[in-house]
Amino acid sequence: MNPFRRRQRERADAAPQVDEVPIRDEMIRLGQFLKLANLIEHGSEAKTVTAEGLVSVNGEVETRRGRQLVVGDVVTLGGVSARVATGEAEPVVDW
């Protein structure tokens, strides 16, 4: 078998990793979640990436950064996925 095709098949067989990101409330807006999940560096980037159709929620492109997300929703940006989870969100501190 061609090594390239074997690698393609191995990648397809591997389940993509989805990080669990806990939130404090019952829901969170998409723009806030993108920052909380470290999918974007600055909150101001949320408008750009959503407007350009680069963000998907549960497999569908989402262009509204104010969309309400609930526990279980999966957000994907640039091939990286994060799932909204219950629990106390830990503060991100950049020293």
Automatic annotation (TrEMBL):
<dbReference type="Pfam" id="PF13275">
    <property type="entry name" value="S4_2"/>
</dbReference>
<dbReference type="GO" id="GO:0003723">
    <property type="term" value="F:RNA binding"/>
</dbReference>
<dbReference type="InterPro" id="IPR036986">
    <property type="entry name" value="S4_RNA-bd_sf"/>
</dbReference>
<keyword id="KW-0694">RNA-binding</keyword>
<protein>
    <submittedName>
        <fullName>Ribosome-associated protein</fullName>
    </submittedName>
</protein>
